[in-house]
Amino acid sequence: MAEHISHILKEHNPSISFEFFPPKNIESSEALFHTIKDLMPLEPAYVSVTYGAGGSTRDLTHDLVVKLQKETSLSIVSHLTCVGHTKDEIRDILSKYRESGIKNIMALRGDPPAGQKEFQAVPNGFHFATELVAFIKKEFPEMGIGVAGFPEGHPVTANRLIEIDNLKRKVDAGADYICTQLFFDNRDFYDFCERCELAGIKIPIIAGIMPITSRKSINRMAEFALGCRFPAKLLKNLSRAVDDNYAENVGIHWATEQVRDLLDHQVKGIHMYTLNKSKATRKIYESLGVTSFTNLAQALH
Q1: How far apart are CA 163 and CA 166, in angstroms?
Q2: Is 19 among the catalytic positions?
Q3: pLDDT: is 220 or 63 the higher one?
Q4: What is the 3-state secondary structure (H, E, C) of 252-263?
């Protein structure tokens, strides 16, 4: 039986979780399913699947999370955004998830569709993630809810004070945990956690880590996380790489050191953005000297 995310995070302290993005077609969906199964021996606390911008990818996302729920022992967190959905459509999606045994949702406003500069809610839709969180809490109170945090600042909220106020509203609306956007300097994460503490935010904060796998991937990451800051030391290390194989090693080493430092600082959890591949995640585990969460928990305690 699926567990509520609050119970999962208590059982796995710290938690290690993996994120995958939506497949584009049935073939890639099947390949992704096998990649996820390959990572199961690492014992993630949960895995999450992001939400596609279009109808077909949304359907594939839904089919994948339901298949994972039925055919694996993994705990699933499905992303859900406000983009292009009315309240009735959101209610229908959540009802289907409930019937499939999925108990945890990452609630996001979502980015504007391609060609649209600013987010615009559809009639009878949600304008903010806070509204989506409150809706889920009211109509599906048994579901666990995650929300996003931005250690380097929200891409559309320049005022960092307002940013934390907005996050506090999501927490007060019923969020159970915060998962951060990717970052490459742990000092940004620690500062973010301190500001959350000052604002009275007491729910677990999970650190989002994405290993660099090539020099070209930096541009994709910058688009994935608007405003993402690449420390000069990291860029210098990448500049010395003779090819992308070496650049990948640099990226994995950097991410491993981030994870090691976070664990040393008693982080509540680490969320690995896998890019739908298993190599980097496996290498990080190996570099830490562990083969699963059980080994990691034993090493830390």
Answers
A1: 5
A2: yes
A3: 63
A4: HHHHHHHHHHHH
β-bridge mates for residue 269, sequence order: 15, 206
- Contact yes or no for 188/151 (Cβ under 8 A): yes
DSSP state of 150: -
Residue type, 238: L
Structure tokens that stand for 147 in this block: 């929300």
| Mean pLDDT of the chain, nearest integer | 88
Tell me the CA distances in angstroms from 238 to 39, 188, 211, 233, 282, one per residue in order.
27, 21, 12, 9, 21
Is 39 strand, coil or helix? helix
Six-digit token string for 142: 């048994």
Cβ 252 vs Cβ 211: under 8 Å: yes
Q: Which of 93-102, 112-121, 199-208 has the lowest mean pLDDT?
A: 112-121
Mean pLDDT of 66-74: 88
- Whose CA is closest to 29, among 2, 62, 54, 7? 62
The whole-angstrom separation of Cα 170 and Cα 172 is 5
42-52 pLDDT, tens digit per residue, is 999 999 988 76
Domains and CATH numbers, the chain: 5-296 (3.20.20.220)
Q: How many residues are there in the chain? A: 301
> Which one of the listed residues 11, 19, 139, 194 is annotated catalytic?
19
Q: Which amino acid is at 117?
A: K
Q: How confident is the model at residue 102 (pLDDT cuts 50, 70, 90)?
A: very high
Q: Half-sphere exposure of residue 140, counting CA atoms within 13 Å on the CB side?
A: 25
